[in-house]
Each structure stands twice: as C-alpha cells, then as structure tokens.
Amino acid sequence: MINAVGRDIPEEILKRTGKEVFQGVHHFDGHVYRKHGPLTQAVINSEGSKLVDSIHDVLIKCGIKDGMTVSFHHHFREGDLVVNMVMEEIHRMGIKDITICASSLGKAHDPIVPYIEDGTITNIYSSGVRGKIGEAISNGKLKGLAVMQSHGGRVRSLVTGEKQVDIAFIGAPTCDDYGNCRGIGGKSNCGVLSYAMVDSLHANRVVAITDCLVPFPNFPAHISMTRVDYVVVVDAIGDPEKIATGAAKPTTDQRKLMMADYCTKFVVNSPYFKDGFSYQTGVGGASIASTISLAREMKERNIRMRFGVGGLTKPMCDLLINDQVDCLLDTQDFDLDAVESVKDLRHYRISAGQYADPFNKGAVVNKLDFVILAALEVDVNFNCNVVVGSDGVITGAQGGHPDTAAGAKCAIVIAPLLQGRIPAVCTEVTTVTTPGESVDVVITDYGIAINPRRQDLIEAMKDVDLPFKTIEELRNIAYSIAGEPEKVEFQDRIVGIIESRDGTIMDVVRQIKPFEFSEE
Amino acid sequence: MNPNKKRLRRTMMFLNAQKPGLIKDPYIYKPDSIMLDLEDAVAENQKDAARFSLYHALRSIDYRGCERVVRINGLDTPYWQEDIRCAVAGGCDAVRIPKTESAKDVKTVENAVVQAEKDFRREEGSVLIMAAIESARGVMRALDICESSERLFGIALSGGDYTKDLQTHITGTGVELMGARQNMVIAARAAGVQCFDTVYTDLDDMEGFRQDVETIHLMGFDGKSIINPRQIDIVHEIFTPSQKDIIFAEKVVREIDDKKAKGIGVFTVDGKMIDIAFYDGAKRTIELAKASGVYKGDL
Amino acid sequence: MEIKKPAAAGTLESSDCQVTVEAGSGGIEFSLDSAVINQYGNQIRKVAFDTLKNLGVNNVRLTIVDKGALDCTIRARIEAAVYRSVGQTENLPWGGAIRS
Fold first, then answer.
1. What is the 3-class SS of A367-378, one letter each residue?
2. C-alpha distances in angstroms, A61 versus A122, A178, A207, A231?
C-alpha cells in the first residue's frame, strides 16, 4: 500500500505489525485515546531499602523470562555501560527472545551483537543504531524486526501501550537507596534523564542502576522513588570520557562556515526572526557554526531569543550566559559545558514526552520557530533520510528529526551537496525518515532550495541575496559532478521499519544484497 | 590581444594540483582565479602524478568562470617543460612562472607555451603568462620582466623567498616588503600589466590579513594571492568600490562617451574638469563594482 | 603498453583513490574497494576499463581502493600508476592515450 510519501509498504508487514501506513503529518490531530498504565507493586512496608545486590538478583526479582521487553536510555551516549551489563546477564541466564526498547543504541553496544545472533535478542526498538548492531540488522541477523522510532514516537508508543515495557533499566548518575534518581553528579554526570523519565512512568518494573549511591533523599529527584522498584549499585554505569566531551572547537572548515552563514542569513531574513523567537539546532559543525553566527546577528540587531531547545551544546548555553535567551529546555547534553549549564536556574529539564510526543496535549516542538537539522540524503520531494547509509546499512538515528521538523514553523536542513561522492540531494532517498511535508529549506554549499509548499517563505526571500535554486537544480548539479548514483540493491526480506512519530509506517528497511558488478 | 589579459583578478587561490579534495570544487568560494600548483606544494616524488591529476581536472571540472592558472616548476628543474605541455593540453588559461629573474626567463617559457599551443591544437595566444618574482634581482628587473611578452598579464610578489634573498624574514608588519611592493607595482603600471601581492600565511590572524590587504589595495595592487578560502571575502570586500566612487565613475564614463560622440574634447563632472585619462580608471571601477555585486546600473 | 613493474599512485585521503597496477596473467583483473560501490561501482569499473583501453593496457592486475574519488581522479591515478610502471615521465601523449 502506497503511503503519503510514496513508499510502497507491503501488506505482509502491515499484517505483521498491525500498523497503518503513514497518511500525513497531521493525520492524527485531535485523536482521542486512553493512556496505558503500568503494573505497579505497592511498597507499604517501611522496613528495608530497595537495594538489590546484583543485576542477576534484580532480574530474578523482576521475574525475567523469555519474550520480555527491557528498556534503556541513551544519556550516556557512547560511554554507556548499562545496556551491555544487563544484556550480558540476561544472556548468561539463558533467556531468549528479548525485545530491547532503547531510546537509542550506538557503537558502545557492539558487544551485544552475539546476543542478536544467538536469539537472546530478537527485536529492537530504538531511535537508531550504529556500528556493528546496524550491520547485524541489515545483514538479517535479527530474527524479528528493528523498529526505528523518533524520540517523540517512542514516547507515544509507551504512553498508548502499543509498546509495553516489562523492565526499565535506568542508569542514574546519582541515586539513593529508595530510588530517587538525578542526572547530575557522580562519575557519570550526564545532566538530565529526559528519555528515562518516560520509561519510569510506563514500565511495569523500574530498576535504577547507579555507581554513586547517595544518602536519602536525593532531591530534587529527576525520577522519583515513587516510580522505582529496585536499586542496584555497580562499579561503573558509564565512561565519563565518552558521555560528555569537551565542547567541540568551532569549525574552521570554510565549506561549513559558508553553509552556516547562508543559514543565519536565511533565518534573520525570515518572518519568524523577531524578539521572542525560539530555536533548536544539532551538533554538526555547520549547525554549531550557525548558532555562533546567529548569536552575533542577534546582538547586532538587538533581538532576543525566548527559548532554545535541545540536544544542547556550548554555543546554545553561551546564549544563556550572555543573556541572549530567556531559558533553555533540555532533553540531552552533548558536552561538558551543557552538563554544567544544567545548574543555571533558567536551564530547565524536560522529559522526552514534553519535548516531542505527538500524542500528548501539545509538545514543546510545536512551539519552535526554527530547527536546524542535518541529513544523509534529501530528495526532490524534500523527504529526508537520516537512518540508512549509502551502503544500505542502518547507521543513524531518527532522534528528534521528524518531531522537530513537524513542529517547527521553519525546518532547515543543512548538508554539503556531496558527502564524499554521494549526492546529498537526490531523486529519491534510500529510506524516508522525515516527510518532505515538514521540511521547509535545504541549505547546501552549492545553493539553497525552499520547499515549493512554502510560497510564503519564497516570497519573503525574494530580495534576499542568497544563492537560491530549486531542489531539482541542486540535484542536477550534484549528479553533473558525481554522476547519477545507482540505487542500492536490497533483498526482499524486511529487517526493519521506519516508524512515523504517529506510529504509522513511513518506510521499510530491507536486508542488504552484496554488490555485484553488472555484466557488460 | 587575449581578451582575458586584463580581467579582474582580486583573489588568486593556491591549490595543490595533487589533492583531489581541494581541486574538485574551489569555485564555490568564488575566487577570481585559482592557481593549481605543480611546484612547491607537490612533493618531489609526486611531480608525475600531479600532472595527471591536473590534466583531468582541467579537462573535466567546470570551474564556473574562475580563471585557471597553473604554477609550473622552476626553470632550474627537470619538470617545467612537461608541466607546460600538460597544462596547455589540459586547457589552462595561464601559466605562472616561479622565481622569474629576467625577461629571458619569460621568453623561454613563452617559446615552450607557443610550441605546446601548436602541439595540442590550441589557438595561438590563448594561454597567458604571469611571472612570480621571488628575488632581489627579479625585483630590480621588474620593468624588463613586465615588458618581456605580449602574453604576460602580470607579475606577482612571492614574499617568502624574496625576504630570504634580502636576508630578512616576513614580520607581519610589511616593512620588509615595502621596497619590492613599491618597485613592482610601479613597474607593472608603467608596462600596463597587473600586479599581485604575496600570500599572508597566518590564517588565525584575520585582522592582520585585513590590514595587509588594505595596504596593498591603497598601493595600487590588482589583487592578492591567498591560501585559504576564508581569506576571499575580506579581499573582495576591500576591493569593492564605495558608492561614491561608483557614482562618480558612472558619470565620468557617461560624460566622456557622450561628449566624444558629439566631438567635444572637454569633459566636466560635478563641475570639475576631467580628462581622458580618467576613463580607464572609471571603467575599472564599474567592473569592480559589478564583480562585487554592488553595481545596479546599466553600463 | 606492457606493465613492466608493479606501481602505485594516489592516496587514501577523502575524494582520492589509491591505484595499484601489476603485470597481469593474460587479461584485465580488476578489484575495487569503495564505500560508494553500491552507487558508483559499475561507473568506476567502466572508467577504469576505458582508461586502460585508451592506454592500450590489456594485461594487468588493477586494484583500486576508492575514497569517493570522482571519475577524473580515477583516470588520473590509473594513468599515473601505469606510466610509473613503465618509467615514462616526459613527452607524454596528452590528449592522445591520456584523455578524458
């Protein structure tokens, strides 16, 4: 069945998942449903603590068995040790057919690949995967399905009960013996616990894992003891070096600086750039450079930002330090400056649900004026791919890409026209993650294309001195330099789906086919 | 005369001809000229490979209006003749001679270029020449060099080697380059060719770079050699004529065109007497204004 | 042209490719390692064979490790490797056997 971005979603996968095809960004606006509540075990007896000796013991207490779903957060990024230690124990206990429901998985989790191969793990829900897990999935090693969810889409699936979590494991930088968790402090300081807040509300069992036990009460708690069943203390939950690195040095690459300048010039000339505007950006070199040059323009034109959202980095926190923004709404911290900034009273922690869940009564992303995004590929319909690499292997994450693009009044994608030899602007993306309907502008080093659906923006930019081109022109330039790329060939077997933030199917990901030269 | 001889050359960006990542699309930064280097940037054992890279880049990459100058190896090396054959066959716009010390050096290169134009069926005179001056002797013979060939569009100072020859070094103040700059720009003007300043190598000191460009702009130089795209905008900005200059230049051109057509030989603009010598300068101002994107008129 | 001794050209930097030629065993043996093989593998092979044909090389083992090089770079590296293998650096046939 063809969906709203023109992708043919096979009946087989609709039947298997019970899902519908994607029918447009606002299809579910006004949708009414009843929220799913988790099983809850009362703790009335006032003796003892919630401390359990080991991961093994806590798994027994939680009643781990074949076919269960376990969840994790990714605030420790590439420094995470929790997923591996829990899965190793589950594997040792001989449990099979586990579904992992993680807010994201990265290269840090390469060690769980053998558990995919031996059937310990058979389904994966995640924002995305990188490294060896991506290779394993794309090579058909996962028996079930990989479901790629956006940050908002993941919350929606937990809140509606579409995805039910049996045990949530929450790595907590600090925790007391009754389960009050904070993202700040300890050895694995990650600032916030936004993704895990949702798991603590909706999982049947909630286990806090910490390497820094503090005296009760660990207040103000980011995740309250009222939602936590057990606490386990381990030697290390993360590698601090890889959780939050020092702030990236601002890029000196002229190509990125040029795209950043184009972006800033576009932003300041758009109708949304006025006192009280809101803004979110990513961690790429060009995104960071555009935040820096935007700060300069704001100062010169005496324009103040009302709020910034993220995924935060130093340049965003500098806006707070320099009093150019009223407040920051934080879902994740990418560098030490951002972690440090959490202490500022105008730096608010928000849950992934507040941030992006399309099925709550209005998420923060809906109030965004601008979001600056990256993409692996954008096609002439402005559909973006941020998950599947040019070799057909899953190698990225949806993150908040589709959520912020859908919410923001002006969603800008920055990408160099050629990534190596691969055209970033193409006729048809390998896999759709973000529908072109919600992408307004594409900025490349060769020119800028405004989505024709946004005649208002085209009109607003009429007299602006920027290298405007049509998206087809950008594609043609890319193809004239690199040659027209052949499409990646896949086998028939579906190994994963790209779930739209509303739970419908945006696209499917198939098993890769080894390349063979065509005969001549 | 080759119509490109007097084209606008505010920025000439150096690129190692051996580096595919550098030479594939420098035009996105919009320098007026690029200088594909076979000389100092290319290691001794890569001289051969660099030529193939240069040849195919010239043949297949659309540099979108950027002038393509090739810096050949010095006349004291075994490479320069094949460099010229490769560059001319590839379709370069100009050849840059390093370490030029005399009119004879230019003649030597010119002869090889003429031969290559014949060998590779290029129109005679289609390949221009520029001479880099890198020694005290070269500076003292600047006028000779400027007048050595009809193909020579200009001379360029190469500050590193020149200051060594002078037994000093690059200081950042420009004091060590004063004499050479002055002598060369005067010689170039006397001969009616262009003059280009040396590179500024400290990429972190953009303020120093700006001052350097302002100095050479006021001295009368036509442009600056640059080593990084980051430097382009500053040069172009400084070489952008002011609105006042543009308006005046426009009046001069119109007045002289108009009066000449009527056979009148006395020109006045804004009540001031001007003479025909203003004409070329005014035309150049309009060209610069067009290239800088600040001219909206119809001249 | 006969490949006289093994030779290589190019680098493993982004947008470049490293080409190695060795005497073949009676034909063209082609091997390619590239991150863009799915999109451009056939094109790279076509360019490589075309370049060898222009040079008159038909007995060679050609290995390309590609880092996203454009066609013009692939041609240049193959030619550089082939001429290195025969030791010729002057009077090269620009626009003849060496052509786009």
1. HCCEEEECCCEE
2. 23, 16, 10, 12
Name the pLDDT band for C87 (thresholds 50, 70, 90). very high
Give the pLDDT of residue A520. 60
Q: C90 to chain B: nearest residue by CA?
A: B82
Q: Which residues contact A40 (CB under 8 A, 6 or more apart)?
A: none
Grouping H, G, I as helix, E, B as strand and the rest as coil, residue A218 is coil
CB A422 within 8 A of CB A390: yes
Residue B166: which domain range? Answer: 3-239
- Regarding whether B232 and B255 lie in a shared domain, the answer is no
CB contacts of C44 in chain A (<8 Å) are none
Q: How confident is the model at residue B71 (pLDDT cuts 50, 70, 90)?
A: very high
What radius of gyration do chain B's Cα atoms show? 20
Chain A residues with beta carbon closer than 8 angstroms to that of C71: 483
On whether the CB atoms of residues A60 and A90 are closer than 8 A, the answer is no
Q: Is there a single domain that holds both residue B51 and residue B162?
A: yes
Residues B231 and B263 in one domain: no
User: Cβ contact (<8 Å) for A465 and B293?
Assistant: yes
B297 within domain boundaries? no
Does the residue B196 lie in any domain? yes
Residue B176 is part of a domain; what is its CATH number?
Answer: 3.20.20.60
Do A256 and A322 touch, CB atoms closer than 8 A? no
User: Is B85 part of any domain?
Assistant: yes
Same domain (yes/no): B143, B272: no
| Cross-chain residue pair B25–A481, CB shorter than 8 Å | yes
The tens digit of pLDDT for each residue in A8-22 reads 999 999 999 999 999
Domain identity same for B60 and B102? yes
Q: Say if C50 is an interface residue toward chain A (CB within 8 Å).
A: no
Number of domains in chain B: 2
Average pLDDT over residues A80-104: 98
What token pair was written down for A157?
A: 């699936």
The chain C residue lying nearest A514, using CA atoms, is C38
CA dist., res. A446 & res. A467, Å (int): 8
pLDDT of residue A465: 93
Q: Kindly report the nearest CA distance between residue C87 and chain A, in angstroms.
A: 31
Q: Residue C19's closest chain B neighbor by CA?
A: B49
Residue B274 confidence class, pLDDT cut points 50, 70, 90: confident
Question: What is the ipTM score, two decimals?
Answer: 0.98
Is B183 a domain residue?
A: yes
Q: Report the Cα–Cα distance between both ends of chain A, in Å, rounded.
A: 35
Kindly report, residue by residue over B108-125, the tens digit of the pLDDT. Answer: 999 999 999 999 999 999
Residue-wise pLDDT for A409-432, tens only, equals 999 999 999 999 999 999 999 999
What is the tens place of the pLDDT at every residue in A360-375? Answer: 999 999 999 999 999 9
* Whether B25 and A465 lie within 8 Å, measured CB to CB: no
The Cα-based distances of A463 to A269, A457, A467, B294, C96 in angstroms read 10, 12, 11, 14, 49
Amino acid type, A61: K
B259 and B235 share a domain? no
User: Which candidate from B19, B56, B120 shows the least CB-CB separation from C100?
Assistant: B56
Quick one: what percent of chain A has pLDDT higher than 70?
Answer: 100
Task: Report how far residue A264's alpha carbon sits from residue A261's, in angstroms, rounded to the nearest whole number.
Answer: 5
| B109 plus B168 within the same structural domain | yes
- Asked if residues A485 and A420 have their Cβ atoms less than 8 Å apart, the reply is no
Other beta carbons within 10 angstroms of residue B59's beta carbon come to 18
Phi, psi at residue C86, to the nearest 5°? -105, 0
Contact assignment for A422 to C37 by CB distance below 8 Å: no
Q: Enumerate chain A positions whose Cβ falls within 8 A of a Cβ in C.
A: 390-392, 420-422, 481-483, 485-489, 515, 517-518, 520
Q: Which residue has the tokens 């000339």?
A: A269
In angstroms, the separation between the Cα of residue C44 and the nearest Cα of chain A is: 10
Q: Which domains does chain C have, with CATH numbers?
A: 7-86 (3.30.230.10)
Look up residue A403 and give its amino acid: D
